[in-house]
Amino acid sequence: MTLRIERVTDASTVLRGAHLFDEAVDAAATSRFLASPTHHLLFAYDDEVADPMHPVGMISGAELTHPDKGTEMFLNELGVDEVAQRRGIGGALVRELAALAQSRGCTAMWVGTEPDNVAALATYRSTGPVSSEPFVAFTWEF
């Protein structure tokens, strides 16, 4: 495997990886996301699986700062193209975001996922988190 991970800085690159997101990519949200220095989007490329310009994985994170916790990295979303799954790409993306978080002075990185999401649980566990705690999530939609 020839894996390359790059930070995404322009909207046209995001569009090339639109298939990796849960929902349709929104132009205004993309611009706002990319404009923030505390938002991070990384794409993975694997020349053995796809065209070198076609991303096969993505991870997004956002730095969250709080008065009593300092700055932590929230791993917002991880996605790997079906043709590239089970090749270690998800784990490589998580480790790359963790390294970025450390380099930016974050004190921790965290993520939430569904308890029945076997692939996500395996990926996150394989990257060496310190703890895994059950929690309840509430969502307000506006």
Please render the helix and strand layout as text.
Layout: E1 3-7, H1 11-16, H2 27-35, E2 39-46, E3 57-66, E4 70-80, H3 89-103, E5 108-110, H4 118-126
Parallel strand pairs: 4-5
Antiparallel strand pairs: 1-2, 2-3, 3-4
**Main beta sheet: strand number and arrangement?**
5 strands, mixed
Can you count the beta strands?
A: 5
State the domain count.
1
Global Rg: 15 Å
Helix content: 25-40%
- Straight-line N-to-C gap: 42 Å
Q: Residue-averaged pLDDT, rounded? A: 91
Strand content: 25-35%
The global form is globular
- Class by alpha and beta content: alpha+beta
Which fold does the CATH topology refer to?
Aminopeptidase
List the total number of helices: 4
Strand order, largest beta sheet: 1-2-3-4-5
CATH class division: Alpha Beta
The sequence of SSEs as H and E is EHHEEEHEH
Domain N-acetyltransferase: 1-142
Organism: Herbiconiux aconitum
Pfam family, one: Acetyltransf_1
Keywords: Acyltransferase, Transferase
Question: What do you see in this structure?
Answer:
This protein has a single domain, classed as Aminopeptidase (3-Layer(aba) Sandwich). 27% of the residues lie in helices and 26% in strands. The protein has helices spanning 11-16, 27-35, 89-103, 118-126, and strands spanning 3-7, 39-46, 57-66, 70-80, 108-110. It has a five-stranded mixed beta sheet, with helices on both faces.
